[in-house]
């Protein structure tokens, strides 16, 4: 209860900060931290519209997860350790979002990674430990590039302070080539943290952790950190068209790629994991096409419906002890309240009008339509269609097939899910063109850099967004509820294509064979060379020692032969010397 009370105070404090930010605008403070020579490094905080939004979002989601965990984790033997790690994780994310300089961001960026490592491996079983190690190592790949980018940026600007960096960038004192190099390094760090291709495979495996952890991880903390970071340093990316296109391309391709895997995945939490990868890809696509508001708006709505979806399936998993869709479908219909909450989350994520996800997805499609290449727009449309199909596939498989009778859900679980369900329905109305655009007006007006507004969605885009979601719903209903094309579906499940998609296009297999086994073979080769050198080193003294012993024997036992050998050796040396001089 102490942890829940502290979480409530944290959320309450974020509301107070929000009210102050609305009243006085941006504010902050820094104090000296340490110095190296004449260079002074500071630590402090900065409050503007973007990070106060993240403060409220992270603290609110943490409070909901803490409430839910009271029931979900009550039988866990390491409950105190769980809450300790959860609070470390949340603290690190909160500290990251208010950091006014890149050095401070980097410190808490790494602490967020540490917190996720501890939480993913919370359950004392081998698969959880392997998943935690995988998450830690794969995100370290991105973090190395991230650190290189920070060093290069400091070398080019002489500072880690964000407002000073923005001034240097916007004044044109750094060439586009340097900014592109720095941006690529930082973007690789984001790819690792936000689980984008090709550093995405750790996130589905991270589902070995407790389900409340998965909800927080996907809703507002670790994977959201990458999207927040790009938005927070957006002027660096705006300065390079190459960076923007690369971001949009990787985001768009990752979104489609992950959606196809979610369409066939058999583990309920892994379906949601791939859906997160896909939705984060759409956010990157939006940022890459100057859709700043659309990306952050979708980040907010995604936090509500994704947390709701995870907590809903968490109740099913807690009841059954399984994450298999085939097993869970036997009990899904027994819980009408969970059925309703999951349906709300699935509808919002699919973009069903007029839930929150519909409005944020429309904003993203608008940005890509007006500012991106046509192929990326239609890729986003196809990804959105697949999203509706796989979410309603999951809904029909989980909640149509079991008996209607079953147990009630505890209040500690139902209460946070109810609040998240309300958010999944209504939070999107903060930014609509018929109820008002408070969100976009507030977000763009209070940032430390200027943001160009995106054209309002046209009637074509609004109708297209509705058509996408409803088409996905109908297709999913026909395939997975009515079981049309059932013989062809069974045949498809036996095909090589199905197996390829189900195995995640064998990305992990390639990593295993090329990098893991390749590294092992390389290590064995280095070990062979090492042993060979050791044998040579040990052979030389033995040989010299043997020659010396023979020399002693020769000298004492047969002095005439010893003298003859010495004379022959001397003559040989003289002959070689004369021949070399001649």
Automatic annotation (TrEMBL):
Q: Where in the cell is it found?
A: Cell membrane; Membrane
Q: What is this protein called?
A: NADH-quinone oxidoreductase subunit L
GO terms of biological process kind: ATP synthesis coupled electron transport; electron transport coupled proton transport
| Gene Ontology CC terms, in alphabetical order | plasma membrane
List each copy of the NADH:quinone oxidoreductase/Mrp antiporter transmembrane domain by range.
99-387
The UniProt record lists the EC number as 1.6.5.-
Work out whether the entry's keyword set contains S-adenosyl-L-methionine.
no
Q: Which domain of life is it from?
A: Bacteria
Per UniProt, residues of the NADH-Ubiquinone oxidoreductase (complex I) chain 5 N-terminal domain are: 33-83
What's the chief localization of this chain? membrane
Q: Does the keyword Transmembrane apply?
A: yes
The UniProt family comment states:
Belongs to the CPA3 antiporters (TC 2.A.63) subunit A family.
Source species? Fervidibacillus halotolerans
Annotated NCBIfam families = NDH_I_L
Q: Which GO terms describe its molecular function?
A: NADH dehydrogenase (ubiquinone) activity; NADH dehydrogenase activity
Membrane-protein topology: Multi-pass membrane protein
Can you tell me where the transmembrane regions are? 52-69, 81-99, 105-123, 135-157, 177-195, 216-237, 243-264, 271-293, 299-317, 337-355, 375-400, 412-439, 459-480, 562-581
Among InterPro entries, the record links this protein to:
NADHpl_OxRdtase_5_subgr, ND/Mrp_TM, NU5C-like, Proton_antipo_N
User: Pfam families under this entry?
Assistant: Proton_antipo_M (PF00361), Proton_antipo_N (PF00662)
Main enzyme class: oxidoreductase
Alphabetically list the UniProt keywords.
Membrane, Oxidoreductase, Transmembrane, Transmembrane helix
């Amino acid at each position: 209860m102490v942890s829940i009370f502290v979480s409530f105070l944290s959320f309450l404090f974020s509301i107070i900060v929000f009210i102050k930010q609305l009243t006085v605008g941006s504010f902050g403070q820094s104090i000296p931290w340490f110095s190296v020579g004449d260079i002074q490094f500071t630590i402090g905080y900065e409050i503007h519209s973007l990070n106060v939004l993240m403060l409220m979002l992270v603290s609110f989601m943490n409070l909901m997860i803490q409430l839910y965990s009271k029931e979900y984790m009550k039988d866990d033997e390491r409950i105190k350790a769980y809450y300790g790690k959860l609070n470390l994780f949340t603290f690190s994310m909160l500290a990251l979002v208010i950091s006014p300089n890149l050095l401070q961001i980097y410190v808490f960026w790494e602490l967020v990674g540490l917190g996720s490592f501890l939480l993913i491996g919370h359950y004392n079983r081998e698969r959880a430990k392997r998943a935690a190690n995988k998450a830690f190592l794969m995100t370290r790949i991105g973090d190395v590039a991230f650190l290189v980018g920070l060093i290069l940026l400091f070398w080019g600007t002489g500072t880690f302070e964000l407002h000073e960096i923005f001034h240097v960038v916007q004044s044109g004192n750094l060439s586009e080539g340097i900014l592109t190099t720095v941006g690529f390094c930082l973007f690789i760090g984001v790819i690792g943290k936000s689980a984008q291709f090709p550093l995405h495979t750790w996130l589905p495996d991270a589902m070995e952790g407790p389900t409340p952890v998965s909800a927080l991880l996907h809703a507002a903390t670790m994977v959201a950190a990458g999207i927040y970071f790009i938005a927070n340093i957006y002027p660096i990316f705006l300065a390079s068209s190459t960076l923007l296109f690369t971001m949009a391309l990787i985001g768009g391709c990752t979104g489609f790629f992950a959606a196809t895997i979610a369409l066939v995945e058999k583990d309920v939490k892994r379906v949601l994991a791939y859906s997160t990868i896909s939705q984060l890809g759409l956010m990157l696509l939006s940022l890459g096409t100057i859709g700043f508001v659309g990306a952050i708006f979708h980040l907010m709505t995604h936090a509500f419906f994704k947390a709701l979806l995870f907590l809903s399936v968490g109740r099913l998993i807690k009841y059954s002890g399984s994450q298999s869709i085939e097993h869970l479908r036997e009990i899904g219909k027994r819980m009408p309240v969970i059925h309703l909450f999951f349906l709300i989350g699935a509808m919002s994520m699919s973009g069903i009008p007029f839930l929150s996800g519909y409005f944020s997805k429309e904003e993203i499609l608008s940005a890509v339509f007006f500012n991106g290449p046509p192929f990326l727009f239609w890729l986003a449309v196809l990804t959105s269609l697949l999203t509706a199909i796989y979410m309603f596939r999951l809904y029909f498989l989980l909640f149509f097939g079991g008996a209607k009778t079953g147990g009630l859900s505890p209040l500690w679980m139902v209460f946070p899910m109810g609040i998240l369900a309300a958010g999944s329905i209504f939070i999107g109305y903060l930014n609509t063109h018929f109820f008002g655009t408070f969100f976009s007006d507030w977000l763009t007006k209070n940032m430390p850099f200027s943001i160009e507004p995106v054209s309002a969605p046209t009637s074509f885009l609004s109708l297209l967004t509705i058509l996408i979601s409803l088409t996905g719903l109908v297709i999913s209903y026909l395939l997975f509820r009515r079981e049309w094309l059932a013989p062809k579906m069974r045949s498809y499940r036996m095909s090589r294509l199905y197996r390829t998609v189900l195995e995640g296009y064998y990305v992990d297999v390639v990593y295993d064979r090329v990098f893991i086994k390749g590294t092992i073979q390389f290590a064995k080769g280095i070990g062979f060379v090492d042993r060979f050198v050791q044998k040579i080193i040990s052979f030389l003294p033995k040989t010299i020692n043997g020659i010396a012993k023979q020399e002693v024997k020769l000298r004492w036992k047969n002095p005439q032969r010893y003298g003859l050998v010495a004379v022959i050796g001397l003559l040989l040396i003289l002959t070689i010397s004369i021949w070399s001089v001649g």
